[in-house]
């Protein structure tokens, strides 16, 4: 069996193990690390200051190594490589034979040769142990200096600030982060740091550290001094290459094992990865290139291929320093490249942004963002993918407050664009996880693709891609209807339709969890009815109480009954029939606002008997109980009215019968008026039709109720056929896209693009879905049947309409009184 | 006559509430016994039965048996059809925290027949 020995147990070492395991290696793997704990996330080391919780930084437990058959040895330092025997020796004199050796020894903090750096109180910022020592010492100290104003130095300054120490940063260069940002950016960053209470000393060369045994201060070459209790050195890194010289491994001038693009040292059986490797004379002090190197080595060790090679790495970076965004990408300075820089500087808001545009104005070469790095990922990708710039590149950074001025969205990114550099995940990978695997949240993306599990810097962009993709799929972002379904109503609509789901139970078993509740059950019931128009009686127990008993529950637990009187038109015989039923069952009778007759006070036991009589007289359910079409109100129109232009009654009857029984997110009402006098109050309805000289005007999105709203003109002077066609499309579009219990007015208000967009979809058919919406409606219309009739004719269903299952009597607690010759319920 | 919330040990009488087929799957119905209205729930999704008072303590109406069944976390519950107040079916606790709890009763199924265990308070 091939023996692989990995020296070092940092982030890159762990990543190599993970990749070997993923690729189903058959080799035996031994990892030897000198730190006492398994690999942890050094990038987020400063988080340790907040809670001193090493577990949170852990990348893998000992169990993980053991479970994957990897021999992990900690607190042991490799002291010698014997290339001839192919074995290594540790400081405890243990030897391990290898076929392949991977050096992942990382780097150590660079400690400049300053007089007095060996004094007590001087620390480096590198490992958890370093931090623990600093924290212990910091308890007795009152001030701290950080030597080095680069990335890590500013992180260390945050750590010192978190320890409640008076903190200074000492930088040799004339500005902070000299390798990443320009002078103006450096000035702004300095201002930000000072605002936070960190003193910034620039142009300072430290000549010595003062104190007897224990440090008491620093002296600089300009003869100035700083009294300080402790010093944290963060002046860069030095590769840990000490194993190289004695073993005859080539080491670069500035340190680091020299490797080729396969990460091989000059001994082909020995690899070096991460911060101890020098590739093209470059040492990479970031984790992402290390992960890339790990992939290169894993491919060779498992698949024996040299196809995958390391060819340098983009050093763009973004981080949040003490709450201040700092990012640079591409070539931030363009010192040697012709370019036109565009920058904006808002010292008031603490924002500085610079982009370097190529001379031909076509591509982005690099840039710097300070104070607001929200667009970092996008700009970085534009730069890497050489994407076309907008006409005014300044728009990319000159974003007004709350105004999304930057015209380029994630949509413009090619699928090949790398969004997570740590794990080498492309936009296409993320989209696939969403589209093919049904992932709907960030955690799901992390699991499926590993994007965002490294430094986390790509998460904002991944989130944008997630939302963008979901949106394109017609989903509403994170509007899960309840704890039982991790989906929005629209998503459930699609799931039910696409998978031809016919029952709540089936949906719950396939896509839900738990046993449902009073929120999701009626919502799904409504969806099932809207999609299939199947009898709601089949699934009585997921219906809201009114739908379950096909009547409106009222005070005292009694019900009201409303037969359909389409358009409000009724014959004397039918009026008499209603009167007779009301008399027989002693029902309170009232004409409703929607031109119907409401019969109140029916007991559950009497409901089937009442319906029986009404059906006999030619009535059917008016669906007054449902989230469905209630009424289409009409005036008398041209038939009787001297002003009426067209037959509003006939049209109202036609429309009401067309949509009767239609289930929707909320109740629906319509109106048809024969002239502009609007006696049917059509514009107070979800859809209203008003006669004009030339035809009909169609209005949508109105309602009465607590927040009255006038309907808005959707199409003017159109024919009856067009009215029906547009109402078909409008209602189906609403049914498909609205939230549960959202009426048409708030739906229209929230619809992006509002009435103009609705006009495009419904009238101009801009989405090309007009015919689909119409045929969906035809299916529902064809499936109509009267629920009351089914309830009384089906003995099993009829049995449900009893107050007690073990007695025929009514609820004895219901109390009524008489007023104005009618029966009323007794107040609560 | 008033029946109290009780444990199986306290049950003095097992009342025959009728055949299991009287109670819709994942739904409820009520029974009348000695002046008391008891709601019985066939929570078939959990394969469990529950019995509670039929009176919703909010508006004092006998309608809990017409409520919708569901779960909140692991707790089976019923939502009153009136205003969707929810109650634990196991303990009777009001899960909205603004009304009284409801009584619950032991229940058992034998030979496809539902029995509710009652204890008569003196």
TrEMBL record, chain A:
Residues 626-764 form the Nitrite/sulphite reductase 4Fe-4S domain. GO terms for molecular function: 2 iron, 2 sulfur cluster binding; 4 iron, 4 sulfur cluster binding; flavin adenine dinucleotide binding; heme binding; metal ion binding; NADP binding; nitrite reductase (NADH) activity. Residues 419-467 form the BFD-like [2Fe-2S]-binding domain. Residues 316-381 form the NADH-rubredoxin oxidoreductase C-terminal domain. Binds 1 siroheme per subunit. Siroheme binds at residue 679. Its EC number is 1.7.1.15. Pfam families: Fer2_BFD, NIR_SIR, NIR_SIR_ferr, Pyr_redox_2, Rubredoxin_C. It comes from the Bacteria. Its cofactor is [2Fe-2S] cluster; FAD; siroheme; [4Fe-4S] cluster. [4Fe-4S] cluster binds at residues 635, 641, 675, 679. Residues 554-616 form the Nitrite/Sulfite reductase ferredoxin-like domain. Residues 3-279 form the FAD/NAD(P)-binding domain. Pathway: Nitrogen metabolism; nitrate reduction (assimilation). The keyword Heme applies. GO terms for biological process: energy derivation by oxidation of organic compounds; nitrate assimilation. It is an enzyme of class 1 (oxidoreductase). Keywords: 2Fe-2S, 4Fe-4S, FAD, Flavoprotein, Heme, Iron, Iron-sulfur, Metal-binding, Nitrate assimilation, Oxidoreductase. The keyword Metal-binding applies. Belongs to the nitrite and sulfite reductase 4Fe-4S domain family. Homodimer which associates with NirD. This is Nitrite reductase large subunit. It comes from Flammeovirga agarivorans. The lineage of its organism: Bacteria, Pseudomonadati, Bacteroidota, Cytophagia, Cytophagales.
Automatic annotation (TrEMBL), chain B:
CDD domains: Rieske_NirD (cd03529). InterPro entries: NasD-like, Rieske-like_NirD, Rieske_2Fe-2S, Rieske_2Fe-2S_sf. SUPFAM superfamilies: ISP domain. Keywords: 2Fe-2S, Heme, Iron, Iron-sulfur, Metal-binding, Nitrate assimilation, Oxidoreductase. Pfam families: Rieske_2. GO terms for molecular function: 2 iron, 2 sulfur cluster binding; metal ion binding; nitrite reductase [NAD(P)H] activity. The keyword Metal-binding applies. NCBIfam families: nirD_assim_sml. This is Nitrite reductase small subunit NirD.
